[in-house]
Structures are given as C-alpha cells and as structure tokens.
Amino acid sequence: MRIRGAPLIGVAAAYGLALTAHNAKAKEKKELIQQLSESARNLALTRPTAVNLFWAVERIMKKIEEVKHGSSAKISNAVVEEAKRIADEDFEVNRRIGMHGSPLIKNGDTVLTYCNAGGLATSGYGTALGVLRTAWTEGTKFKVIAAETRPLLQGARLTAYELQQEGIPVTIITDNAAGYIISKGMIDMIIVGADRILKDAVINKIGTYTLALLASTHNTPFYVAAPSSTFDIKRRVNDVEVEERAQTEVLRFQQLQIAPEGVNAYNPAFDITPMQYIKGIIWEKGISSPRDLQKRSDFL
Fold first, then answer.
1. Domain count, the chain
2. Which of 96, 126, 155 is the last residue in one of the domains?
3. Cα(195)–Cα(7) distance, rounded to whole angstroms?
C-alpha cells in the first residue's frame, strides 16, 4: 500500500523493471533477460486485482522481445525508455479523460467521489479527480462530497487533500452517510475510478457497488473514469481474484486497537459493480456506455 491506485501501480511496475535493467550485473544478454523475466514474475504476484500492473509488465516484456537480438545495453535502454513512455502516456491520457468528462459537470452541481483517483493514484493528473480538476480549471463552479473510504480513509486523507490544493470546495462524509445524502437529492452525480473494467462489471474500491445501487435507486448518474489500460474486456468477473487485505486494517486505527481482542475481521479490498448500474465510462477516447464499450475493438 505504499503504492496504490491502479494507473500508478502500472507505472511503478514499469519502473520496477527499468530498475532491474539499470542495476543488472548480468555479463551476458541471456542472463539479463532472465533477470528481467524473474522481476516481471515477482511484480505480477504483488497485486492480483488491478489490471494495469499486468498490462504494464506485459508491455515491457513485449518491448524486450522486440529488441532481444540487440546488445545488453540496447535492451536495458529500451526497457528504461518504455517505462518512461508509460508514465508520460498515463499523464496525457488522464488529461484527455478530464477533457472528455468535464462537460458533464455543471455550475452549481455537487459531485460525490469515492476513494482516491487523483494525481496521487496516477502519474500525476488523476482519473475521476482529473475530471473534476479540468472542470474547475475551465471555470465551472461546483462542490465535491468525498466519502471517507474505510478502512484506510483514502477519501478523507488523500482526495480531500488533493481537492483542497486545487481550491475545489470539498466536504467529507462517513461512508454510511452516502445513502442519506443521495436520497435527499443532495448529489447530482457520482464519479469514481476503477481498478479493472471487465466485460460485465467494474471492479473498484470496496463500497463502490453500494454507491452504484444507491445511485440507481435514486436516479443519480454514476460514472467511472479510467484509462484503457484498466480495460480487461475479454474477461468476466469469475476470471478475476479480488484481493483481501490484513484484518488489522479493520481491527485497528493506525496503532490503536478499536475492536475486542480475538475478534476476526473480513477485509476485501475491492467489490464488483455490474455494468447495468453504470451510466458511462469516461476514458481517453470519450464517454462510452458499457454496451458501446464492449463493441469496440481498438483496445482488445
């Protein structure tokens, strides 16, 4: 959790392989490629849910395959340059997501967001928060409600901080207040990020599905903002492992024990939102309905 956010995890994995290439002591090209392959396998084991990790590792390994007949120096340089390219592309892609999504937000709107999908979760601009940043920069005046996002409070700690730095008015709510404020008509739309977009569902921070159900019940538009590197349209829900994290995240707050000793906790990190509850996916090529997105072939 020192690195979190699906796009940033992908960028970090790419730079992890770049570090392997840069620091490798291999005397022969074959040994260098073996070291890079081993690093790729180790990185792929770290986080099972966010697809950007696997996308970035596969992209680097494909680049290695393209230049494998060159010298060791050429292979190392190619890996480092590809990692830099992945990071730069992520920033630009997020800016385009912001550009496409910003017209959805109107003056006077109140937008609810969940977890953290800003610059701290990407290479620097943000997906869901990138939409908000762009709209604000364009002069649209609105307010944001940031759900705290238990158990690690990414909304309260990170999202609120990023919005504050941008000068965007933000109010934090407890996660269990969302139903009340949505039912009262206090929210005009919900925008969240994603860790993996499947053929039949979106996987994101635990609690996203609850918000999507609330949004559907109260006719509140629910949008997902994510780059195409998060798309995994060929797979369905049953193909993906949902990461579970340590019980202590729930049983403690920082170092303070908040539950009775000996009590267990169940701590899935993500949940699954069926496509039927999602109005649109905001990505670098526009805003697509889930049905239209599944018909596209340019990222499959």
1. 2
2. 96
3. 8
Residues in the chain: 300
The answer to whether residue 1 sits within a structural domain is: no
Residues serving a catalytic function are 195
Question: pTM of this prediction?
Answer: 0.94
Q: Is residue 300 part of a domain?
A: no
Rounded-to-integer distance, Cα 57 and Cα 13, Å: 6
Which range marks the domain in which residue 121 is found? 101-295
Angle made by CA atoms 148, 95, 233, in degrees to the nearest 5: 75
pLDDT averaged over 10-residue windows placed end to end, the chain, 300 residues: 90 97 88 96 93 96 95 95 98 98 98 98 97 98 98 97 98 98 98 95 98 98 97 90 95 93 97 97 95 70
DSSP class of residue 300 equals -
d(CA 42, CA 5): 19
Residues 115 and 208 placed together within one structural domain of the fold: yes
Q: How far is CA 260 from CA 153, 250, 253, in A?
A: 21, 12, 13
Tokens standing for 48?
A: 């099972």
Element at 190 (helix H, strand E) = strand 189-192
Angle at 193 between CA 181 and CA 111, to 5 degrees: 30
